[in-house]
Structure formats: structure tokens, C-alpha cells
Predict the 3D structure of the following.
Amino acid sequence: MNPTNHPSLADVVSCLSDYDPDAVPVAQAQRIIRDFVAPVKAIEKVSLRAALDRVLATDVISPINVPAHDNSAMDGYAVRSTDLSAEGSVTLRVVGTGYAGRSATQPVGAGECLRIMTGAAMPAGCDTVVPQEFTRDATSEKVTIPAGVVQRGDNRRFAGEDLEVGKPALHQGKILRPADIGLLASLGIAEVPVRRRLRVAFFSTGDELRSVGEPLEAGCVYDSNRYTLYGMLKRLGCDIVDMGVVKDDPQTLEQSFRTACESADAIITSGGVSVGEADYTRQTMSRLGDVTFWKIGMRPGRPMAFGQIRSGGHAAYIFGLPGNPVAVMVTFYFFAREALLQMMGAKVPPLPLTRVVSQSAIRKKPGRTEYQRGILSVDTNGQQSVQITGSQGSGILRSMTEANCMVVLHHEQGSVNAGDLVDVLLFEGLI
Ligand code: AMP
Ligand code: MG
């Protein structure tokens, strides 16, 4: 990434009147991050299937009409609506049959109709299709249409009603989902311009950490953050550089930050950003770039570092997440996720919150945002409600595996009574 022409964090925060790094509301931190990061520029062409989950790099203009011609939405009879009567049934002469995939040749005159199959081109002169089940006494020569079974224009699909030639079919920034690659296929498009994948390097810091496979000595814990980060980054579609556990030693840390910076667009670390942390993570980050250390008004996940570091002519955005396993996930989802999507060039709507009844009271102080882990359930009457998982400690990763949603208690909000409505964010969606 080109390290020039970039606003400094000081530039970004200079327009905020009430900025205090020791008391940053969630929304303010999100805004600073949004104003600071820029998307990767490079574009590559990939085949349609490989484009799934990638970020569309340019608008796609429809090269054709879909459907290409007016056609029937039903099996039945293509008629001229002027031949139908509101008072009584009419009998029309059948001039032939129209099949899907064959061009319409048969002209249809007054008093005539065409037997037609779903998807077959509408014959000239006809504007309406009478579904076969509404007709009577059909033979290969004639058919009777009772009064009032259709209105003019029924069961006719128009050329270009799905996609119109020359109009944008998809906009750049869209993350391509199954429907989108299907839609591109309907346009006959075989290759898609997408942004290059974002490369994200990550490592864990802390002398107490052991990697899976190593013996666990007294006072040590296994490094779980690298696995949750792996999962979250993979789900987001990033290329990842897993740099392992980095010991709390100034030279090793500096070398790790430099290697990460030279090989990735963004760096995510966990641990070592707490206040009074007796380690070198903070010092090293500040020495290598423009990094700020926040105390965010949130729970879990108060301490977080954010900025950009430079090494060997490269620059990389950096997220120094706290060490506690739940705090890592929460800060990733509510800060890093959106920033990474922005770097990927993706345009995504804000995360959708759903309001549901809280089964029990939740204690909460105004002046910070809380992300409690919840289980949303549906009772036999179809009524949804949420119950927070037991312990909400920021080290209790079990609370994340048991939960199916996050209960979002907003900055100004106070305690919740049983039966109150709360905002929840579901972990899983349909697609
Ligand atoms: P820190 O933010 O470095 O003060 O870490 C806070 C807590 O999170 C400490 O109890 C650490 O042992 C724990 N922790 C830090 N990094 C990890 C990790 N990678 N995996 C599991 N626990 C961690
Ligand atoms: Mg630590």
C-alpha cells in the first residue's frame, strides 16, 4: 500500500470537538476508523464461480434484456384481450403452439389464439395469457375462454422486466452472493472484475501463551485468539498470514510488526494494549507509526489500539485488540469488521438489529455500550425472546459458543427489566 497521501489520525480527530482517547464512545471510534481507512485499489478478473463472496469492483451494465422477449408466465393460451368478453364466454380458433426456446413465428389474428408454454415468446398481437386450467372444451382447433378469468396483460412477462439492456444490473462494492452470480449468468457474463483479496496478518502477544501442540506449563494458557481470528477473517473472505505467538521481547515484537506490515494490508494483534501492561507491544506500535491507544466506552473490550504503521516503504492498518478472548471477538466484530470490509472495497449496510423481549432483567450502566451474549429462542406461539448466557466475563469464550446473538445495550441505555425490548444482533443469517 502506498503510504503517502494519507490523513493522519490527528487530522481525522481534529474535527471532533469532544475527543478524548481515554473515553471514546463506540460510535466515535467507529467513525474515526471509517474516516481513516481506504480501500485497496487493485482489481482482478475471476470466473463467475470464483467470484462468489468477492467484492464487485465495477458496476455491471446489462448487455442484454432479460428476458430477451415478451413471454408467457403460464402454460395456456396467448390471446388478444380485445377478443375477450366481460359478459360471456368466447371461443377462439387455435392457430398453433408456441414452445419455450423457439422463436415466435405464428401471427395471431382477431378471433384467434396460440396455445403457449411457459417461457415461450408472446406472438405479435397477443397481450394476455389465459392459464390452461381456466379454459374449457380445448381441442387442437379451438378453445373456450369463460368471462372474467383474466385481465388484460395477465401472465405476460415483458422483455427486460428482470434486467434492462444498458442499465446497471449490479453496483460496485457488492459482495457477490449466490443470487448475484446467478444474475450475472443470466446476462451471459463469464468473468467478473473483483477487488483483490485483502491480506491480513495476525499474531498473539503474551508470554503466558502456548500454541496448540505445545505442553501447557504452570501459569500458561493456550492461545485461542489466533483461532477465533482465523475463523472471523476467513468468513470475511480475507487472505490471512498467521504469524503465531510473539514473545514479549522488544526485538521480536518489532521484527514481527515489520514483517506483518511488509506482507499485509492490515495487521491484527491481540493482547498487550491494556493500561499498565508491562510489555512492549504498545511501545513498538507507536514507534512504527501513527497509532492511538483508546479506552473505549464498551464492555467487553475497553482497551484497543488503532492506526497505521510503516516499514520498508509499506504501510498497514493496525488493530491492537485486547487479549481477553471475548473482547477480541467483540472488538473484531464492532470495529475491525467494518474497517476490513471498507478496505476490501465492500459497501455493506449497517448490521441489522432486531428488537426482542428480554426474558430477564439485565444490569447496565449508561455511558458505555455493552455487548452481552444472548440466546434468542422462539416459543410455541412463535414469540421470540432473548436470554443472556450465564457468565458474561470477557474471558469466558463459552459464552460466545453458547450464544446465537449479541444483545446490544446502547451507550445511553440503563438497566433492562424483564419483559423490556432489547436490540439483538443475530450471529447467523440466511445466506
Ligand atoms: P492482555 O490484554 O494482554 O492483558 O490479556 C488479557 C487476558 O487475556 C489475559 O488473561 C491473557 O492471558 C488473555 N489472553 C491474551 N491473549 C490471549 C490469547 N491469544 N488466547 C487466549 N487468552 C489470551
Ligand atoms: Mg498480556
Q: What stands out?
A: The mean pLDDT is 95.
